Amino acid sequence: MTVSLLLNFGLLVFLVAVALALAHWRHLFPVAMLTGLYSLLSASLFTVLNAPDVALTEAAVGAGITTVLFLATFGLTRAREKPVKSSRRLIGLALTAVTGAILVYASLDMPRFGAPDTPVQTHPLRDKYLVASQDEIHIPNTVTAVLGSYRGYDTLGEVAVVFTAGMGVLMLLGRGRRGRKQNPE
Amino acid sequence: MMLIAGILGVAVTMLLILVRVLAGPTTYDRILGINLFGTKTVLLIALVAFITDRTDYLDLALTYALINFIGTIAVLKFMQYGDLGWAGDVEDDTDV
Which residue in chain B has the smallest CA separation from A19? Predict the structure, then answer.
């Protein structure tokens, strides 16, 4: 479908532009807001690619929680990036380029988008989950059925991990605020 | 056809907003631009939902609207108070 192809292209171009700005800006407050925009963009990309559950997670975590956490952290630290020596920046650029090249090389091994002969499509379990999940759990979305029911304990464990991490972050941020209260102006 | 025209319109608006956010001299331009961009994302998802005939995506669009609101409130609160402030820190001021 040409429209979705054009849309993918446009969204990817927007993503590149935002990423360049993110790397360029030194003042971290606009950067924190722009990461939210980046995440909204990638979430719309996921939606266009027919992955609404991934898009939902991306938007909730990337655009919602991460922005708020960054801002809360700026309340405790400074909102300006420390200048870095140019030699160290070059090392960082080289590392990023190498990692990116390896990832692109690895992506060449991936099956084509929507190819019919991948293991996902040909595995005998596919029919079991696609068909039987409708009768067994009555959830129209198969991904949700697998996440919420077939591997429910795994998801429960993940939720516990995320909850613990959230508690830890909240305690860190809260302590900073209480500490400031103890020495009033 | 109308839907495709709508999607194109939203994409062009996104481009204009993005230019404003990236160029935009003051921080307030950027805040407003990013808030608007979130709204455009909601519209884009709604249009994609109707064009692909998967209206369950509309829930996604609603969630995005909520997240966008929370993000903007957090940013504005940070601008006002310097941190995300307890309600107890500012007794004399109305808290969001």
Answer: B22
